[in-house]
Structures are given as structure tokens and as C-alpha cells.
Amino acid sequence: MRWLIAFLGVVIIAVVAAVVLVIPIDEIAPTSEKSPIASSPAPSPTSFSSTPTPNTDKFTDSCGTFDTDTPSPYALSGYWLIPTVDHCTWRRQFDAIHKVGGDTVIRIGWGLQARRVDDDGRILDTDGEKPDPRYEPCEEDGVPCEAAAERDLKAANPGNRVTWTFVYRTDESFGPDLFRCPEFEKKITVGKTVFYRIVAPDDGTDDPSCTNIRSEGRGYHVILIAGAEQDSLTELLDLGDQFGIKVYPALPLAPRDPAQKTRASNEGTATLTTLTRRIMQDYGARFQNRASLAGFYQPFELQMRDMQYLGDDSEKAKKDNPTLKVYASQHEIVDQEMPGRPILVSPYLDARKRLSFSATPQQVARGFEALARTGVGIIAPQDSRGTGKVGLFWPDQREEKVDERLRSVVGEASNGTAYYGSTRDYYRAMAEARTKMVAQGYDVQLWANVEAFEPSDQDFCEERTGTRGRTDKERLDTAIAQVGRYVSKVVSYMWSDFFTCGSPSLSEEMARDHDRPIAVDAVRKGRDIQDGMEIRGYNMPMGSKVTLTWDGQDSPRVVDVALTETPPDLPIRMETAWIPLDWSQVPAGAWIKVSVAAADGRAAAETLHVRMNP
């Protein structure tokens, strides 16, 4: 039996959950001129980054009747989607996401895996024990596809050999630009499954033609792709055009290091690079001018911590994080083949003090800088509140008990005992790191990915969600309030399951209560000769009321919003509200609790905690 060296592959990504940014107001004195740190600017308008315009107001097809109005826009504007074989499900999901103001869809993908083969050339399962039923049907002239590939290579030159075999699954269908040498690379249709056979030199090169296959005997990697009869990406981009939604399809996921599965394997990176290049060349031929194709999602998840990426030939660079090397390699290919489309990554945070591998805000900031050096265009850290790895609290709440829903993760502890910091501490640090990297010439955006679930092994939506249960809109509002000030966009993991399960579902709660105020930041700011406070957030029109409370008051002060504005550099749907306030009445160093309520009395789920530094 011929056993090919293999390492563990990946089946499907454990996706990132949610990330949102915040900068602590207590550590930077509010000023009368501007907010302490400018928010991440919105992407510069290009044909690829701007939101596609919906095509029609209303349309009917075999999946039902849909319209392109946005009746209930919420603060979240992007969502992860899980693949589905039901085409009407895609359409219904785009329709529902659009109705609550979503303009971005990020889809989950699959990983490249090294596999063993048996004596007949049949690809074995991940355990290497029996033929994998997904790839077993692939045959050419009655011969398994992997064996047929080796047969053809040896016929061209007896010195050719297959040294490794890789598999990749997808629900996409590719065009002829996937291939460099159609004589040895081909599309094989078996029923409704379409297989693609790619051969590439095992030294990491990728010949532009067939010449070397005949001229010299070499080792080759065979990549067998199990694809689909109907291309899902074409369908998603068509829906994006229809509903005015930008799409971020997933790049191939790197194989994992068998010894440390949280990192990409150093082995197989060259093959991943080849597969990425081929897919990008195919996309370039078919989708180069599609406005709904906004960029690409790299789904290999890693923890935000102190990491190294130098990306040069120095001796020190040999210790670069292998996952960051993958990011850099794929960024380079995307930049060559699909310029103008950024790569989005969504690492997670872990602030738990009791764990040796958790990270402080300062360590996370250094990790952000390393990520930016790889050339990725969008870093959307998960806020990690859904997994309980970070808490939502203000600086003056460090001695309070953690949220009851987090005690299964960190125990009966105070916020300050359980965590190195809150989400706002981490996002402040990353926002500062982003400012530093932009000054050095790195074009990187900071988004927030808020996790739309709770730690739970009982109230889960589907079996596949495991120990993650549904959350509620109030908690989503709180997460956005904690982090929304310092990111250019807030997205959420994930629509499939977490926003759609239960009755009422989370998406239905959002639609019914979409215009409840969410205040994310407040600073001292005067207007003309009058001192006051500017509040940044969502849904704070004229008629809204602000209640200010601090220790030593006889009674809380209620102030009407006197002025609203929407400056051009704010994220979509965010605005500012201004109220008059004589700051001389506020004790120096006092914490002010700022509660915003709509004209109908609905108060924001989260109260801002602001301190005027002495």
C-alpha cells in the first residue's frame, strides 16, 4: 500500500463570532473640540467597496415575492451566512438581512486537507481508514481520479510522481481559468457533483504551461476539488446586486498544524497558495467587474495576542507566526489577481485572567499591528462576549459581579477578577494600534464582530451550535454601545441559526425594536458660547431625552436633545446628538451616567458611563 504523508486537515471553520470597538472615555479627558480618538473612517468609495444599489422595488420569482425597501434598519450592517443547498433559503436570508439594514454578507467556507490514498488510488477519510464517500465517485476511465492523475503524469514523463494528495470541497462551480494545463488538469462530472483535478509541482511553483510536465521528472501535488453543478457564488453575487448587499466569499482555509491545531501548518502552505491563485484567476475572469463582490474572507481563526510577522528574509522572520504567513500569502495573490478587494479576517479575544494563554489589551494591540503587516484590509475582531471570553462592563463596574450568563465560563467572580479588561478596553487598544499602522502606510480598517449568542448547553438553536445558545436584542444593543464608537462597521456572527431560531426570533426582535436609541460615546463639546455634551450613537433624533446622573445629585437631570447631526465620517446610520450642560456643576472626576430615551419613552439598553477627568 502506498501511504502518502498527511497532516490533519480542516472540515469547516469555527468561525469568529462578534467584535466591536470602544475607547475608554474615562482615560481621555473629553474636550470641547472633538472626540478623543477619531473613529475608523469608512472605506473610500470605489466601484467595489461602495454598496450596490438595489435593482427594483419589488419582484416575484419561484421563491416568493420580495422587495428591496429597508423598513427596519438596525445598527448591525453585516452578517455571516452558513452554506445551504436550498436556493430559496439564500433568497429569503438576503431579503431578511436587507430588511433590518444589512448591506454585507460574509460566508463561511471549507478547508484544504491532505489525505492518504489506498493502493487503488482511492482517497481515504480524515482518519485514513476507509474510502471517503465524498470523493470515491470520482473516476476517469474506470480509474480513481487520483490514480488517473498519476497515470497521466507518468505517461508524460516516467520521472513524474505524486508525492501528496489534497482535497477541497465547495458548493461553487469554476470556469476554465482554474486550469493552467488543461491536458493534465480537468473537470470531471459525476451526476450532480463536479470534480476538478489540479496538478502542481510540490516545490510550490505553479507552471504557466504544460512544458515542464514533459521535460523533466518532478514530484507533484494533486488537488481534487469536489464542487457543485450550480455555482453558489454567482447566485450570491446576483442576490447581492438584487438587494444591494456586498458579498465576501471565503478563501480556502489552510491545513492545521497537527501539533498545535490553532495554527496553520507550515507544510502545505505552498499548495494552499497554488489553490488560492487558481481560484482567484477564475474569479478574475468571471467576476472582475461585479460591484457586489466586495472582498474575501479568510476563515482561519486565530487568537488576538502578541504575534510576530516581519515578512522579510531576516533570521528573526523565521519565527513569524505561520497563520500570519498564510494571510500574507493570500493577500499577495488577491492583490495581484483581484486588486481593490480586501481580505477580511476575524480573530477572537480572550481576556480571562486565570488562563495562561489569554492576552491583555496591550498584547492584543501588538497582535493587531502584526496582522496589519500581512496586508489584510479589514480586521473584524470577535468581541468574544458570546463565548464568555470577554465581558461587557465599564471601568467603574470592575468590582461588580460578572453577568450571570457568564458564570458558567468564569465562575462567581467580579469583572475585574475574571478579566484583564472589558471589550471597550480591548477595542480602544486596537483602535490606537490601527491609527499607528495607518500612519505607517497600512490601509487597514477596524470592524467589530459582535457574537449573537450566549454560553449555553441547553438553549441552543441547532445541534451544530453546540454550547452556544440564543441571545436577545438588549444584549446586542449593549455590545454595540460598548464598542461601536471606534469601528467603521459593526457586523455579527452569525445570521444562520442565531438570528433565525426561536419565536420570536432575534431578527424579529430587531425589526420590531430597531429604532431604540443606542448611545456609544459622549464627550464634552460646546456650541457657540454654550457648554454642553455631544453624544454619538443610533436613533437619537430631536424629541429624545437624556438623563444625567452622578453621585451627590439631589435628583437626576433630564435634558432634551437640542441638536442632531450626521457628520460624513461616521459609520452608516450613526449620528450625533447635542445637549446643553454646565460642566462646572459636575464634580471633578465624577462618573456621569448618561441614559438616552426615545420620544416614546423607550430607554437605551445600555447607559453610558463617562468621567470628566480633573
Write the layout of secondary structure elements.
Elements: E1 58-61, E2 64-67, E3 78-81, H1 87-99, E4 104-107, E5 113-115, E6 139-140, E7 143-144, H2 145-156, E8 161-169, E9 186-190, E10 193-201, H3 211-215, E11 219-228, H4 232-243, E12 246-248, E13 256-257, E14 260-264, H5 269-287, E15 296-297, H6 322-337, E16 343-345, H7 361-373, E17 378-379, H8 407-410, H9 415-418, H10 423-439, E18 445-451, E19 453-455, E20 468-470, H11 473-483, E21 489-493, H12 495-499, H13 506-512, E22 518-524, E23 532-538, E24 545-549, E25 557-560, E26 563-565, E27 575-580, E28 591-597, E29 608-611
Parallel strand pairs: 3-4, 3-21, 4-12, 8-11, 15-16, 16-17, 17-18, 18-21
Antiparallel strand pairs: 1-2, 5-8, 6-7, 9-10, 10-11, 13-14, 19-20, 22-23, 23-27, 24-25, 24-28, 26-27, 28-29
Characterise the protein shown here:
The protein is an alpha/beta fold. It has 13 helices and 29 strands. The strands form 8 sheets. It has an 8-stranded parallel sheet. Strands 5-8-11-10-9 form a 5-stranded mixed sheet. The protein has a 4-stranded antiparallel sheet with strand order 22-23-27-26. It is elongated and about 90 Å long. Mean pLDDT is 89; it is low at 1-38 and 42-47.
